[in-house]
Amino acid sequence: MMATDGITNPFPGLRSFESNESDRFFGRDLQIQDILSKLKDNRFISVLGTSGSGKSSLVKGGVLPRLSKGKEEDWSIRLMRPENQPLQNLARQLAQMGKLDVPDEDAEEYIMALLMRSRMGLVQVVEEMKLGASDRVLMVVDQFEELFRYRKEERAQKSEDSLSAKFVNLLLEATGQRKVPIYVMLTMRSDFLSDCTDFHGLPEAINDGQYLIPRMTHTELRQVITGPMQQYGYPISNVLVNRLLYDLGSSMDQLPILQHALMRTWDYWRQYEANAEPMGILHYEAIGTMSQALSSHADEAFHELDEEHQRVCKRVFQALTQIGKEGRGIRRPTPLWQLCDIANAKPWEVVAVAEKF
Ligand SMILES: Nc1ncnc2c1ncn2[C@@H]1O[C@H](COP(=O)(O)OP(=O)(O)OP(=O)(O)O)[C@@H](O)[C@H]1O
Ligand SMILES: [Mg+2]
After folding, report:
1. Which tens digits make up the pLDDT trace of 329-341?
2. pLDDT value of position 3
3. Nearest Cα residue to atom 19 of ligand 1
4. DSSP summary character for residue 236
5. CA distances in angstroms from 195 to 33, 77, 148, 206, listed in the order given
6. Which residue segments constitute the domains of the chain, with CATH numbers given?
7. Residue among 262, 264, 263 nearest 240 (CA)
8. Which atom of ligand 1 approaches the CA of 260 most closely?
9. Left, alpha or beta for 128 (phi > 0: left; psi -120 to 50: alpha)?
10. Which atom in ligand 1 lies closest to the alpha carbon of residue 14?
């Protein structure tokens, strides 16, 4: 998030909302209510939708903050992504709860051993935590589809023991019992739904507790634009709001682009207007409107790099995106050392390039 004059931009741009940003998260009240009520009946909930439809934001910026505020139930929420090490990431999140009778420095290893030993590993770990009657543990697995790429790599390495299947089994066993209060919520791109059939029991669990994220209505989109501005007392012209809604059309894929354009327009407005005028059409046009905002921002960032860094930049972007057989792009979490290897660059050069974007 960019700060101008020490004031923070209320629009996150291309990234998803975080759980500490619920004050600027708008337009999803009905969906939050729906998911919360689903959670009463199901311990395994999957939030599904197309790429960029707002799954992670809805869960992190909308649902989780409401849960932690509950009174009858005391939620311990852990948030993870599978990345290249789903089991370790799960163990780390559980260890960070600090509720086991094990020294902090040994907790992760201790948990990992339990998780590896049996399908009931996650249940056992939570059972050993000293939880009160109202305590609930919610493990949120964001970008669950990363697990399918991980599984393919595992297969390519002909690994004997499938850690991806172990990970899924742990989640399924934990949510299929009622002895300890474990809940799982995952976000996953709907175009990966069929990959779930690769894991025993996963399709059934998904069928029981799925939530397909709906397209935002005109009114909700209006809230997305005006809500964060009103929240911080920033004026925005009605003409701009209507223009944004018009430019958005009926396409759902535009949410990231709208968000990026709002972030850029706000930065421009703060920099050049110092609040004399409400944020308006002039500022929006100055950043190239929705049709240009993204490419001009990327071009600006790319051209600010010298020739050597531009080379590093191209290699890094190629490494971070994997195009599947069906032409679906999928994020490929890649450790820094590997990016350095691929781009033949030093760690600080890769970091400098990434920070430009
Ligand atoms: N309620 C909202 N209000 C404003 N912007 C939103 C909202 N929800 C999502 N966005 C924006 O839409 C974009 C996509 O959001 P997010 O990353 O949450 O989607 P996603 O479905 O998880 O994407 P992916 O398929 O890449 O995981 C981001 O730019 C985010 O800031
Ligand atoms: Mg996401």
Report:
1. 666 777 788 888 8
2. 44
3. 54
4. B
5. 28, 27, 7, 12
6. 28-212 (3.40.50.300), 217-293 (1.10.8), 304-356 (no CATH)
7. 262
8. 29
9. alpha
10. 29
